[in-house]
Amino acid sequence: MKTGILKEALIKGGADMGKSGISAEEKAWLDTYDINQYDRPSVAADMAVFSIMGLASHTEGNGTVRKADYRKDPEKGLKLLLIRRASFPCRDCWALPGGFGRREESTKETAYRELYEETGVKDAYLQPFDIFSETGRDPRGWIISHAFLTLIDGEKYQIRGGSDAWEAQWFCIQVERQEQERRVEAQSAEISSMYTMKLICRERDALKLTAQVKERKQFVGYHEKTTYEIVEPGGLAFDHAIIILRAFLHLQGQVERGGKMVFDLMPEEFTLSELQKAYEAVLGRTLLTANFRRKISDFVTETEHIVEGAGHRPARLFRRNLHAFYDADGGGLSRQP
Q: For residue 79, what is the DSSP state?
């Protein structure tokens, strides 16, 4: 096998660019180039799909949104979508949605396709956050995974299993960190921590998965190198315990630094209380309401709709203020709530 699609793309690109295209000499070189002289990995995409799950709602004809049991169960929680694998390897283990790329796809296109095939979700916010290529991460061979942080409003979907999954379920996620060792010297430092992840599926007989991942941070000359080791997989397939932890820490870090990503976890309309609870669910801490509302005010706009619940004062619904949300320099919440 020669250059195939790559060669055709380069030649087409040269034709499209006119004089700036590849030369006849380079075309001749491509004709003799054999890509098989190098070992090639399989490429996959894995998606860490998060949602803030709340109660079902519907809109009345007068524009009032009513929510069942709003008084009894107002809490919002961060959840992660997992599938139970239907085939070897790791059959019956829980895993992130994902799969192998096809020849004509980008890795993001693979992620969208696999997400739909395995869960039924057609549209989602996808952001690549890491690449996993460690030796032995998959028993089938050399497989490199492009990992995507994926955010959706989970209440919009009836999640289902797909081609490679027995079932798909939402799991509440809790992450705890315990520092184990800290050594700091003149020109180097090392910090070891143990992360315990608890994943609980309340809809499936309170199914609980507990995984442990050891993080080791080394600093040499102020440069950081971080490695991860699975201590207890907890029923998760492959190295997905590490991918889930990295996705969670990335999401939390993004929210700490800016925060607008949280809006992709919300429905089109929401109360300010619901928005604050979403921030708190990701950050794992309580925020001062007055400070939060002051800092978030530029990024929301009030609607004409309200939400009512027994025993509660009707709350106004808001939506994103797109003029402030997508400003000229990329936007975002520069101030932390």
A: E
